[in-house]
């Protein structure tokens, strides 16, 4: 079993070899106490020599204060009274903190010679602190580890600074390459940047990272000035090019845009500007044309000219503004014209034309609340006036007894205003009158038909019914007057004399039985009658008799003289 020792400083262990013959077979010499002491003394001396050389080299780089005896050793021998009471746990905790920090430090990249040397010294100092702790010199160990912790923190910051400085140097090189196109615009700034970058690189190699960073920052500042000169050159050419485009100067615009793109090939304004420059003269001509039309207030034509210019150059603010402005003025002109028409038609009570004008105005400006309100008011007024006009027309027709026309106007009124009570009453009233007139005319026709068939009594009844329903205003026509005269005449009975041989039975069909008469006078209303004479053994005799007023009263002789056949 090999030699080992407990890591706890308070305990000491003796190493016992379980194989006393170990190592004798290969002829190795036995380790004696004197020989072991000689090796330890020689190794320690060699390590001190290497550490001394390393510390001297690091001090040449980071300064003479690095690991000064008064930075650590003094701390171990300080007369600070509080250190006299430092406990083992406190010293052990300080050691653990330093060990953790040392582990973190080892993970940092140490690719610079000065940092490698410094790391070796820190590792050696850590071993020295552990020796103090093992010797139970807790106060000295605590002071030693505390000072070493500060050295580790400083070392970590130095490593980070080195990384930052390396990145700055790389960025300087990249930026110098990217800004090479500005060399002829700012030669002095480029020379300054090169000089500062070279000096900073040398400081970096020497391990003077903070000084190197300052040199790289100075190089960046010089490159900033070169970049500003480049930007000013590009901006100035772009400005001149845009002025030339606005003036329609195609050659000057192309030259200025190309000069800007030579220094800034990816400039979007320059790339777009080349296309704009190709049509600059045509765009300018269309804009001048649009301005002339606009002065003449021919806004539709002006908007068209500006629109063509905008189609050629979509980045022309003048063309875009001119198009928008004249489209707005065109819209305003159309709107004002429509509103003027609407106002004129309203004043003339031409409601349909006024409504059409307001609708035309709304097509021009659909969101105009004033026009929408005026249109609604006009429609309401138009509807109210239409109702009033239709009702007045119906009343006028009714007053002239033109019932069909009146009823039609009342119906029109109800379609406009279904809730209009007066229109409803007029509609029903005129309908009733129309039906009455139809009935009256029908009865007159029936009476006339009966009169023509000499059915005077039926005719008189129908005529009287017609007269009962005839409107008072309705005058009798000649036809009706003639019928009335005829019926008046034929309404009086006529004395009719009947004569027979006294042997026959005489009767008036559907009127009266006269019996066996020799002579008899009967009052009969005008009309057509059938006279029948019967006698046993003789043939019946049938006579047709017309009774009329206005002629000589008739004498009717009737007798059965022919015997009936066997």
Task: Provide a brief overview of the structure.
The chain contains 18 helices and 7 strands. It is α+β, with helices and mostly antiparallel strands and 566 residues long. The chain has a 4-stranded antiparallel β-sheet with strand order 3-2-5-6, with no helix packed on it. Strands 4-1-7 form a 3-stranded mixed β-sheet, with no helix packed on it.
Task: Give descriptors for this structure.
about 575 residues; alpha+beta; 3-stranded mixed sheet; elongated
Task: Annotate the secondary structure layout.
Elements: H1 33-62, H2 69-76, H3 88-107, H4 113-134, H5 138-178, H6 187-205, H7 209-247, H8 250-263, H9 268-278, H10 280-295, H11 299-312, H12 317-347, H13 351-364, H14 369-399, H15 403-416, H16 421-452, H17 456-469, H18 478-489, E1 494-499, E2 505-508, E3 512-516, E4 519-524, E5 527-534, E6 541-547, E7 555-557
Parallel strand pairs: 1-7
Antiparallel strand pairs: 1-4, 2-3, 2-5, 5-6
Distance between the termini: 186 Å
Q: Name the structural class.
A: alpha+beta
Strand order of the largest sheet: 3-2-5-6
- Rg, alpha carbons: 69 Å
Q: Could you tell me the number of beta strands? A: 7
Summed over residues and divided by their number, the pLDDT gives a mean of 81
Largest sheet: 4 strands, antiparallel
Q: Please indicate the percent range of residues in DSSP E strands (runs of 2 or more).
A: 5-15%
Give the count of helical stretches. 18
Note the overall shape. Answer: elongated
Runs with pLDDT <50, length 5+?
1-29, 57-79
Q: Considering DSSP H and I runs of 4 or more, what fraction of the residues is helical?
A: 55-70%
Element string (H = helix, E = strand) = HHHHHHHHHHHHHHHHHHEEEEEEE
